[in-house]
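Hey everyone, long-time lurker, first post.

I ran two proteins through the pipeline my lab uses and got sequence/structure pairs for each. Pasting them in order. The first:
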Amino acid sequence: MKKLKKYLSISFLSLLIVSMIILPIETNAKTIKEFQQEVDKYTKELEDRKAKIATNEAEIAKIKQRISEIEKEIAKAEEEIAQLQKEIDESNAEIKRKSEESKSIMEYYQVSNGENVYLEYAFGAKSITDMIYRLSIVEQLTEYNNKVMKELEELIKKNEEQKKKLQEKEDELKKLKKNLEEEQSRIALDIASIKAGMPSIEEQIKAAKSQLANAKSLGCGETEDINSCIYRVSQKNKSNGGTSIPSTNGFYRPIEYGYVTQYYSGCGTYIEWKGVCSGHIGIDISSSNKSIPVYPIASGYVTATYYDPAGALVVKVKHNYNGRYIYSTYAHLRSFSVSKGQFVTHNTQLGLMGSTGNSTGPHLHMEITTCDWASDFGGCTWRNYAISSSRNPRDYVAFPASWSNR
């Protein structure tokens, strides 16, 4: 146990130093005054984040409208291209027909097989008038056909050029549509990232203000550490016949048998504008029994039961660990069988393992923190909870790669 305390102290000190470098205002122990300042700052940032979501959603609406307009332009361009192709095909057919006519006429107008067929046709006339008429007909028909074919060829050339321009326009429109769709997906992903992995903005603001009000109602001094105050008040209530959480030194695994699917990495980087960590602030475990019962790691009080924004069913329990409170969180439950305020032991079934919310399969995501954002007396905001409050569950609970008992 001494080694465990020493390790926790070293780990906490290291994490605290890193947190101070990244975000100097983030500390694990806060006084009423500091918490008030953080809540005010936090509330503003959350409102800004909410405004960003609204801005992004408005931008997506504009993009959708532009995509709809582009789709209409593409459809129109395709219709024009089809019509031009039809005209080109008709012109080519007409040129072919006129060419055949000219060929027949030219049989009388050109020399073939060494004979002057034109002269033969001309001198075959019965009179000078008939000959002049024949010559005139041949020349006029030939000139007309040549003129028609030339006009058709120019029309084909013009249509081909127009078709090429329309095709280029259609390609540009399709490219623009693709870019807009990619931008729409990026913005949608940003919105999802802002919302994912954290409670709703309204919930966070409400919880932070509620905690501040509750801490003040306990009579905590402005310069007194909130967590220490909460513990002091609870012990005072105990001496006055109230309820308190028995201290625990031993911890149990939350399921009877299973295996680890993802280990704890901590909050590697806290992305401010998204309100999420790049790391994994809990441990994921599963079992061959995909609806195995889930139990608390130790005795304590249930402080919250809720669905997160992604739909994951969550239960939180507060424990008394060597004179300080720690919180265990159990997420993705299929169902739960406890209620807020209920005292539980390590043998009380919290619920069944499941795959609710953002989950790829049945498993239990479990977190251990030194404060909590969702409890009336949790002592921290969501940001502080994620950055400096989370602890590696394996520092408290023995999690081998797999196990067959608690």
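...and the second, right after it:
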Amino acid sequence: MKIIDVKTETFHYKAKSMRDAFGHGHPGPERDATETLLTIVTDEGVEGHCFGANAPVINSMVKEIIMGEDPLFREKMWRTLFERQRLAIGTLSDKVLSAVDVALWDLAGKAANMPVYKLLGATHTKVPAYASTMCGDDLEGGLNTPEAYAQFAIQCKERGYTAFKLHTWQPPYSADPKRDVAACAAVREAVGPDMVLMLDPYHYYSRAQALYIAKELEKLDFYWMEEPMPEQSMSSYVWLSDNTSLHIVGPETAEGKHFTRAEWMMHNASDMTRAGVRDVGGITPMVKIVHLAESFGIQMESHGPDLANLHVLCSMSIPGEYHERGLLHPFLDYDVPPPWLNTLVDPMDENGYVHIPDGPGLGMDINFDYIRDNLVS
């Protein structure tokens, strides 16, 4: 089997969210937006797909590297792209590597007629999800006050979620440790002692501010906190983990894939490690991180609602516990699939469990008619 074509199709859709100047998502007026589908085609008619591809980079750089290759030589192709990154800083990003690698895993599952999580070695068919909010805002009825977070947490609990994570206020809104703690306290009071709670605050607090939040979350019986300080300073996380009983999770956005996470594990910089396919360059490196975490006896939580993350999570024998479902907001209905998919990739039952699709590959039910009818000319 050989790769005979690498295609990208960019198409229009109507988005009901927007990103602020700092890149954070919020609800917004309906607007035109685009998405891109990557398709890797073989001479045996088997194809692999992934959404979220960078079409210019795929077409100008990646295509010539993987054309003619055996698509099952994923490790070879991933390594080639990884080494190519050294001379393509800022262009060949980990998100590009991820799109290619995920499409190749989707293709492999279809070639074997089994889902990716079974190719990896299955352990679960369902996992608990946590409700992961959008960042704080100033929208009336949105996530503009501690009380608004509390009310939304109640709604999520009624939907079936057994765990809830706050993303609190980020620039351009004022980031304030005391306001973050007030929101966490309001949520705990609203949902009671049994719901699992987590916090993802502003990412540039000082050590003193991060420790203040951690000590307050200890009192509120929160499960974890992630990325309260710049992750470039690993020593700050070693210090924070040593000074609080609250679980500290990381790294999330620090560059370096499995290499960086190995350093954090070795130096006890966090209590749980973190990885998502789009952060580290695909399923291939994420599985390396799973094995590292298992070797060190460290819990690994997946980052982001990506379907590929769910496949890795359902193959893990180490205690990776939750699927991140979101980003959620009172103004948006997450349980409606995007128009390019016929069904949700992470449907959740009334008990808070997400069930993994059992079709071949990633198990996406793609609406190809919608994509072809809305292509960008």
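Reply from user beta_strand_b:
Welcome! Quick read of the second one: The chain has a mean pLDDT of 96. The longest strand covers residues 25-42.
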